[in-house]
Amino acid sequence: VNRVLDVAPMTRAMREFLIRAGEYTLTPMSVMLRLATRAPGLMDPPSMRRVYQLNDAFEGGKMTPARERVLGVMEDFADAVFTLKELAHLAEASTSVIKGLVKLGAVLEVDRPRDMPFRPLDPDFASKDLTDVQAGAATQLVARVQQWAYSTTLLRGVTGSGKTEVYLEAVAATLRQGRQALVLLPEIALTSEFLTRVVERFGAKPAEWHSGVTMTERRRIWKMVGQGGAQLVIGARSSLYLPFRDLGLIVVDEEHDTSYKQEDGALYNARDMSVLRASIAKASVILASATPSLETWVNAESGKYHKITMTDRFGPAVMPDMSAIDMRQEKLPSDRWVSSDLVSHIKARMLKGEQSMLFINRRGYAPITLCRACGHQIGCKTCDARMVEHRFLNRLMCHQCGETEPMPDTCENCGVEGRLAPVGPGVER
Fold first, then answer.
1. CA–CA separation, 171 vs 142, rounded Å?
2. Are 422 and 366 in contact (CB under 8 A)?
3. What is the mean pLDDT of residues 306-318?
4. Cα–Cα distance between 278 and 248 in angstroms, integer?
5. Cα dihedral sign for 227, 233, 237, 238?
6. Mean pLDDT over residues 337-365, rounded?
7. Confidence of residue 46 (pLDDT cuts 50, 70, 90)
8. What are the two backbone dihedrals, phi and then psi, of residue 5, each rounded to the nearest 5 degrees?
9. Chain centroid to CA 21: how far?
10. CA atoms within 13 A on the CB side of 257
């Protein structure tokens, strides 16, 4: 034994999860343990920070509206402590007002370890009014959470159907049980907006875990998750390896997103590992998506997962009208790929002063460069893909391996000059 860490011991469920995850992904246990202890400074004693709390023994003194706002905030969050910046922001007051209350004796200024528990979340702080469809879906999810047993549910809903509000009801049910919840998001960019919605629903900010969090805060989160001082974690895929003391719910938002795949070091898909961890912890899993992955869809259709479908958008929003154009029936001029129907619709939008967007899922000018003399198609010299012309750069690029070369003047196969021609549409074209 080199050193004893002042942290919560690893639970039996966590050990079993790491062992089985390592076996499933063919990852050595040493690598899995590094994943599970990825927080800097675990061996260091916690640093201190200055916080402010209400003095219950205060007997009264001169008050101003700003001072009353500060004390009102502190009374609303009984037994909570605040940093100077947090308290000033919540009370919409200057820091000098808080310092004045300290001198008056109404507020205590104390030094405490930085690794403090997160402010408790109130599952009944601000319940949302749900539609009948949302309420029905939420009831099913809450019922599974209340079983204290493993289950996985696909929450499939069209974009704008209100899936977030539905699974937040399951989070609330988990908090009422005194258990912890984890919500996985595919991108850091989504975190800020989601945190705002969580604060509006539960009245306090949850823990957030991703690469943008400071090292000091990561250590605090790691310790508080293990001690039960963090009820809800919003995080990227690596948050799945935090040492939860009693994990009751895992939500994988946009479960189809490829960002959940870890492609270096320990190779894993956070969606699959969420199901594994929940099965060991006797927790519920919610896989939310408007376009589920094929694996999840098959598991839901076969009955391995439960399935909830939400087909209507929330509020006045409606689904757009969609139509498909069979290009096999279109008679287009040479080097044209836009149907007359589409052209007329775009012109109609332009006459109304409106905008249109064409999505072309092909980078470059043309996907094929063909020799009209011999029929040769220029291919990549390092793999079997075709080279794509990028006319703005005057180069050919392979979109499979990244190989590039200057745009040639002559055919490499027959040597004829000036007969190379682009074939097919690209976004540049």
1. 8
2. yes
3. 82
4. 8
5. negative
6. 89
7. low
8. -90, 140
9. 21
10. 17
pLDDT of 242 higher than 70: yes
Tokens 């001072």 sit on residue? 67
Indicate whether 212 pLDDT > 90. Answer: no
**Residue 119 in 3-state DSSP?**
coil
Residues whose CB is less than 8 angstroms from the CB of residue 158 and which lie 6 or more positions away in sequence, other chains included:
290, 310, 311, 312, 313, 319
297 phi and psi angles, rounded to 5 deg: -60, -45
Question: For 327, which DSSP code?
Answer: G
Confidence band of 27 (pLDDT split at 50, 70, 90): very high
What mean pLDDT comes out for the span 119-127?
91
For residue 381, give the nearest of 364, 365, 400 by alpha carbon.
400
Dist CA 372 CA 288 (whole Å):
50
Q: With H, G, I as helix, E, B as strand and everything else as coil, classify residue 65.
A: helix
Domains of the chain: 1-38+115-322 (3.40.50.300), 48-113 (1.10.10.10), 359-429 (no CATH)
- H or E element in which residue 85 lies: helix 84-91
Q: Which residue has the higher pLDDT, 202 or 321?
A: 202
Secondary structure of residue 24 in the 3-state scheme: helix
pLDDT of 160 strictly over 90: no
- State the DSSP string of 198-262: HHHHHSS--EEESTTS-HHHHHHHHHHHHHT--SEEEE-GGGGGS--SSEEEEEEETTT-GGGEE
Instruction: Give the three-state DSSP class for 343.
Output: helix
Residue 1's pLDDT is what? 66
Give CA–CA dist 95/257, Å, rounded: 43
Whether residue 315 is predicted with pLDDT greater than 70 in this model: the reply is no
Mean pLDDT, residues 402-406 taken together: 91
**Alpha-carbon gap, residue 328 to 331, rounded angstroms:** 8
Q: Within its chain, how far is the Cα of 189 from the centroid?
A: 8
- Compute the average pLDDT of residues 3-14: 80
Token pair listed for 351: 């006459």
**291 φ, ψ (degrees, to nearest 5):** -135, 80
- Main-chain phi, psi angles of 96, to 5 degrees: -65, -30
Least confident range of 213-217, 241-245, 258-262, 419-423: 213-217
Return the bridge partners of 268, or none: 262
What is the rounded distance in angstroms from the CA atom of residue 397 to the CA atom of residue 299? 39
Cβ atoms of residues 7 and 223 within 8 Å = yes
